[in-house]
Amino acid sequence: MSELLELQRRVAAAIMHPLTGNETMPRKRRDGLSNTAEADALIKPNDRLSSFERLEIYNRQYWFRLYSSFEEDFSGLKAILGQKKFDRLMRDYLTERPSQSFSLRNLGSQLEAWLTEHPEYLDAENREQQRDLAMDMVRLEWAHIEAFDSAQLPLLDPDDLASIDENSQLRLQPYLRLVELRYPVEDLLIELRSESGSSDASSNNASISRKSRHVRRVAMLRPEQIYLAVHRHENSVYYKRLGREDYTLLQSLLAGAPIGTAIDAALADSAIAEDDQGEFLQRAFASWAALGWFIQ
Questions:
Q1: What's phi and psi for 132, nearest 5 deg?
Q2: 257, exposed or middle or buried, with CB in 10 Å at 0-12, 13-18, 19+?
Q3: Which positions fall inside the Putative DNA-binding domain (predicted)?
């Protein structure tokens, strides 16, 4: 290993080590290594700052950038949990599941799985509704991220679409995400973002009070089965509610099932009368083609 690579790895390890509860760089790491000694070995002091203090600047800024990005990505979850519980969740999650990517967009990729393993972070005086509401929001906010910046591929030619049969496979845009929800969190997220702006910068008392009212109102609703398509059009993300049949059909197509198999799965035990099923399928495929979901 070259001296430069070794130096880079040591500096990165110091910078990426989690902060203390007071948001300072710890003097000693979890593996017992001394950050003070590492700083002295890696960085020269100046007339104003010690080696440790100079290294701490980078350590703190690294983590503050992670916190800022994560908070922006999951502003809906923050509104549901409240700032204090959200901060605890964020710090512990990012400590246990540290960034493994050059892109900050992937910070929340393991959040749903992590919360499934650690439901205590969603505990709200044993109110199951709020836990379900929070998990729905996590799924939606991550789907929103994926829909926003996943690839968009060339559309299927109309002539090719007209020639498909039951044995054909239809490919869908990589940005399309399907989400099954128990509460109308898409409406809640739209309300929260429209009030605070995309950066979620508003933090005055009136704004916090309105957010709390929105969350309580949605949490008090009777749970319902909601099927949602999260998709993109002209660099904006949209939420489209689906019927069970639409959702199952799209799920099957995304899994690579032939059209005939996907249709059979969608219409099994369907409430749509047999005489109306042809019209349903024609309308569904025409709508999705118009949205640009079918690709070459």
A1: -65, -40
A2: middle
A3: 7-115
Q: Is residue 156 located within the same domain as residue 267?
A: yes
For 41, the enclosing helix (H) or strand (E) is: helix 35-42
pTM reported for the whole predicted model: 0.89
Residue closest to 137 by CA, chosen among 73, 185, 88: 185
State the pLDDT confidence band at 128, using cuts at 50, 70 and 90.
Answer: confident
| Residues in the chain, overall count | 296
Rounded-to-integer distance, Cα 117 and Cα 109, Å: 14
User: Measured between alpha carbons, how far is 111 from 86 in angstroms, rounded to an integer?
Assistant: 12
Say whether both 80 and 59 belong to one domain. no
Whether the CB-CB separation of 111 and 142 falls below 8 Å is answered with yes
Is 25:55 a contact under the CB 8 Å cutoff? yes
Average pLDDT over residues 216-224: 85
What is residue 218's predicted lDDT score, i.e. its pLDDT? 85
Q: Which domain holds residue 91?
A: 74-295
d(CA 172, CA 213): 38
Mean pLDDT of 127-141: 90
257 in Cβ contact with 265 (< 8 Å): yes
Within 8 A by CB and 6+ apart from 220, the residues are 129
